[in-house]
Write a structure and sequence with these properties.
By secondary structure, the chain is α+β, with helices and mostly antiparallel strands. 38% of the residues lie in helices and 11% in strands. It comes from Methanomethylophilus alvi (strain Mx1201).
């Protein structure tokens, strides 16, 4: 989805994007990604994820993975008084 986000950003900025691909560091190969014109299902999924992001309410979110929360650079500023709900 990140590649599609970058694609739409480039197009909005006036660039012509002829093809999309990702590079795998595991095997040092490039893999083609379907152009949005060729993959309406992927564009629909991208738009669904954007809608979820726009409607997300951080004030009600509590991170349940304590290890992930402790490594988070925002943990000291967490609006929920700490990311995880296990602070007893």
């Amino acid at each position: 989805m990140q590649l599609y986000g970058q694609y739409f950003g480039m197009v909005e900025a006036g660039y012509e994007v002829k093809s999309l691909r990702i590079h795998s560091m595991d095997d040092n190969k490039n893999y083609p990604i379907p152009h949005p014109d060729e993959s309406p299902e992927t564009v629909a999924e991208f738009e669904r994820i954007l809608d979820e992001m726009h409607s997300f309410d951080i004030s009600g979110y509590i991170q349940t993975n304590e290890a992930k929360c402790r490594r988070c650079i925002y943990e000291p500023m967490c609006a929920n008084g700490g990311c995880y709900d296990d602070k007893t």
